[in-house]
From TrEMBL:
It comes from Desulfitobacterium dehalogenans (strain ATCC 51507 / DSM 9161 / JW/IU-DC1). Pfam families: DUF2339 (PF10101). Keywords: Membrane, Transmembrane, Transmembrane helix. InterPro entries: DUF2339_TM (IPR019286). It comes from the Bacteria. The chain crosses the membrane at residues 78-95, 107-127, 139-158, 164-182, 189-206, 212-231, 236-255, 267-283, 295-313, 325-345, 352-370, 376-395, 402-424, 436-455, 467-493, 513-532, 539-556, 568-585. The keyword Transmembrane helix applies. Residues 28-66 are annotated as: Disordered. This is Putative membrane protein (DUF2339). The keyword Mitochondrion does not apply.
Length: 599
């Protein structure tokens, strides 16, 4: 104590000497220095002159041994993870090796595994409290995985515990892994623990594992994943467990004797597959809805992958038993997603992206159901009707966003039109209403309805993308009308030729080309008039461009290939159309140049 007092007195005396020296340099002395302290004047910066920030000591850059990876991360983190993984594999191989060679008693093997697992958990907690967070995470994850090994072996291979006890222990381990990963805020703990849990049945497998045991075990692990997803947003964790879940299901299903028996429905596999699907459906959006968070692309991708995986696997299970009605299974799934999308949209207004994703999936399943259940022209008609419904629902929810799902379905409908022959057989109620014509009319009406819906719901939003998309829809509609009229005219003249093969071919060909020229010219004129009436510049230009094609046809083809009477009619019709359009441009040019007075 006395020594400390002497040191303090020496430091105080040193400070006094320094103060006295400074006072002497400043020209003051004694107590007056305390009454009127002299403060150093800080020179104000001149306006417009930047004041230099204080210099900070620069830290040496981290040395990297690999591109994008620091030396600390390589040796401190990845070596830790690989070391734990090596020990986990050593424990797993030890349990299997001792089982095959009967070196240690069954109870002794399990006890060793449990002791090592609990020891790892304790070591991980110790390092967590000592602030060696990353180092401790490896031990915690490894301990969880080793506990999975031990309990699984005790039940499946050694029969030391009953099934209820094994499942209770599995639930406790899963709950521990989930809570520890949340407590440490560490996806690494969850990944190492859960991945170790998924690997257990395959590392210790002897080829005689029960399908019920495997699927129930995986369902318990997935329940732990759902618990973590409720508190944390870890996409990589969800993706890995999703992958391992469906891989485990496929492996377990293939090992079942009923997997390749088309006469017997595998109820067990279908039931567990549905359970896995529902769990990951909840994992995908449970936290987002609870906290009203925005959905990331990773969340939406998991929803899509889950739907694709479930339908693909369930299709394989059902197709041999409901082959004639398999399309209704896709419709059923589509209706489920539709109900979910509408419910979430109304209940949780802030989750619009989720609602649109669910509605897109509903549209996808219904679109898929149509060719699975129907055939021929009914596929095209159904797709056309579905495209209108999807456009309507999507525009009601988010009119500022282009409904790509509806656009894709409409594209499928248009492409399917060209897979059927456009022929007239004479058995139709009306000669022009053949099956292909009816399908074309449905698609044309659907496209026109979509143009009207899109214009009505998006005219308040002045976005360049909307105007371009609307113009593309209008052009598509007119191209469909032109193609339909052309095919219908050609099919009708082919039908006339089939009725009388001795008819004058030259006369029929001239009549056919005359009708084509007149119909095309009238359609171009209608487009130009419509463009003036609705002030649609894009439609006017499309009409002018198509009229240019008609002019080329008349002057280049009709002039040399039509007989004289039909040639006269062709040029007369074209001349009348051109004069009428020219008069419209002179009479209503103010609609283009903005003049309010008529000429």
């Amino acid at each position: 104590m006395n020594q400390q007092l002497r040191e303090l007195q020496a430091e105080l005396q040193e400070l006094k000497d320094r103060v006295a020296f400074l006072e002497k340099q400043a020209g003051v002395s004694g107590p007056s220095a305390l009454k009127q302290p002299v403060l150093p004047q800080r020179e104000l910066p001149i306006e417009g002159q930047n004041e230099r920030p204080p210099m900070r000591p620069s830290l040496p850059p981290k040395k990297t041994s690999l591109k994008g990876m620091s030396e600390e991360k390589l040796a401190g983190t990845w070596f830790n993870r690989l070391g734990i993984l090596a020990i986990m594999l050593a424990v797993a191989f030890f349990l299997k090796w001792s089982f095959d060679n009967h070196f240690i008693g069954e109870l002794g093997r399990i006890v060793i595994g449990l002791v090592i697992g609990l020891g790892f958990l304790g070591t991980g907690e110790y390092f967590q409290r000592k602030k060696f967070v990353i180092y401790g995470q490896g031990f915690t994850g490894g301990g969880i995985a080793i506990l999975y090994f031990s309990v699984f072996s005790a039940f499946v291979f050694y029969h030391l515990i009953s099934q209820p006890v094994a499942f209770v222990l599995m639930i406790l381990i899963t709950l521990t892994a989930s809570l520890l990963s949340v407590r440490y805020d560490s996806p690494a703990v969850g990944i190492m623990g859960i991945v170790g849990g998924f690997a257990t049945p395959f590392l210790l497998s002897t080829g005689q594992i029960s399908q019920v045991v495997l699927f129930t075990y995986v369902a318990i692990l997935d329940a732990g994943v759902l618990l973590v997803a409720y508190f944390k947003k870890w996409p990589i964790f969800n993706y890995l467990t999703f992958l391992f879940t469906y891989m485990s299901f496929i492996a377990g299903h293939i090992s079942s004797p009923e997997a390749f028996n088309p006469l017997r429905f595998n109820t067990l596999s279908f039931s567990y597959l549905t359970l896995f699907f529902l769990i990951y459906l909840a994992i995908s959006f449970t936290r987002n809805i609870r906290l009203k968070e925005s959905f990331l692309w990773a969340d939406i991708s998991l929803i899509l992958l889950n739907a694709i995986a479930y339908f693909s696997l369930s299709y394989q299970l059902l197709v041999d038993h409901i082959e004639g009605w398999i399309g209704f299974w896709a419709v059923f799934l589509g209706l489920i997603y539709l109900i979910m999308g509408v419910f979430i949209y109304r209940r949780y207004p802030g989750t619009r992206s989720l609602s649109l994703t669910l509605l897109a999936l509903a549209a996808g399943f219904i679109t898929l159901a149509i060719p699975l259940q129907l055939d021929g022209y009914w596929v095209t008609i159904s797709w056309a009707l579905e495209a209108v419904i999807i456009f309507y629902l999507n525009l009601k929810i988010n009119p500022q966003k282009i409904p790509l799902a509806g656009f894709l379905i409409l594209t499928f409908a248009i492409i399917s039109l060209f897979t059927y022959p456009f022929t007239i057989t004479g058995e139709e109620l009306w000669v022009f209403l053949n099956k292909a014509a009816v399908a074309f009319l449905f698609v044309i009406i659907a496209t026109a309805s979509i143009v009207w819906l899109f214009y009505r719901h998006t005219r308040k939003f002045e976005a360049k993308g909307n105007s371009i998309f609307l113009l593309s829809l209008q052009v598509t509609l007119n191209l469909l009308i032109i193609i339909f009229l052309t095919l219908e005219i050609n099919a009708y003249y082919d039908y006339l030729w089939s009725l009388n093969s001795d008819a004058d071919y030259s006369r029929l060909d001239s009549s056919q080309n005359l009708i084509l020229s007149l119909v095309w010219g009238l359609h171009a004129a209608i487009l130009i008039v419509l463009g003036f009436w609705r002030r649609l510049k894009g439609i006017r230009w499309f009409g002018l461009g198509f009229l240019g094609i008609v002019i080329l046809k008349v002057f280049l083809y009709d002039l040399s290939n039509l007989s004289t009477p039909y040639r006269i009619l062709s040029f007369m019709g074209l001349g009348i159309i051109l004069l009428a359009i020219s008069w419209i441009y002179h009479r209503y040019k103010n609609l283009i140049v903005g003049d309010d007075d008529f000429e």
